[in-house]
Design goal:
Blueprint: E1 2-6, H1 10-16, E2 22-24, H2 27-32, H3 37-44, E3 50-54, E4 69-73, H4 82-91, E5 95-101, H5 104-113, E6 117-121, H6 130-141, E7 146-150, H7 155-164, E8 168-171, H8 173-180, H9 183-193
Parallel strand pairs: 1-2, 1-8, 2-3, 3-4, 4-5, 5-6, 6-7, 7-8
């Protein structure tokens, strides 16, 4: 499983950039970090293959590089149709990510229209088997959409994402140390090689 760091705090992104494959954020995290999508994109597009930016219109995508992955919320309101926007961007050849999928209907839609990624809500989902069901559906129908497991409450949830077959996990900085700092292994390594 590959990892995306889920934050807009540039110091955290820089700290973990050698261990992760990409970065993702959302409007609330950008606001908390006192930044915006343009700055977030420009600071990270050179360092990562996968930079995820949330958009609400086709026109917004012109502000970013061709490599950018556009996150589209799968919801419909009076002023916004995420399902239609996702399909339009796929048809235009843009890199896309359905966010956040809560159920199999949304996940199946994202796969059927050809989204490159789908962010799957895990730990906070009422359906505790949702990730497993998405992985099973993907394998059964030979979908190409990559599953990004998201919304973890503990490192055990991240372990489940590995075990159940997610392609990626989007992880907040507070869990990065637990994933990449196995102190017992470091102690064993030091003992084996006689490092003091």
């Amino acid at each position: 499983m590959k990892y995306l760091i889920d934050t807009a705090e540039q110091s955290e992104i820089d700290k973990w950039k050698n261990q992760v494959d990409g970065v993702t954020s959302n409007p609330s995290l950008l606001k908390k970090a006192s930044t915006n999508t343009i700055d977030f994109h420009n600071k990270n597009i050179e360092n990562f293959t996968d930079v995820f930016i949330q958009v609400q219109t086709v026109e917004e995508t012109a502000l970013y590089s061709d490599e950018t992955i556009f996150k589209v919320p799968l919801l419909i309101t009076e002023d916004f149709n995420g399902f239609g926007l996702l399909q339009s961007l796929v048809r235009m050849g843009k890199r896309t990510c359905a966010t956040i999928t809560y159920d199999l209907f949304q996940f199946d839609y994202a796969c059927e229209v050809g989204a490159e990624y789908s962010i799957v809500l895990c730990a906070k989902n009422k359906n505790s088997r949702f990730l497993i069901e998405c992985v099973d559906l993907k394998e059964e129908r030979k979908y190409k959409t990559k599953i990004i497991a998201a919304s973890f409450r503990s490192l055990d949830d991240v372990n489940d994402a590995v075990r159940f077959g997610a392609d990626y996990a989007t992880v907040p900085p507070k869990y990065m140390g637990g994933i990449f700092s196995n102190y017992e292994a470091v102690e064993d390594y030091n003992d084996f090689y006689g490092i003091e």
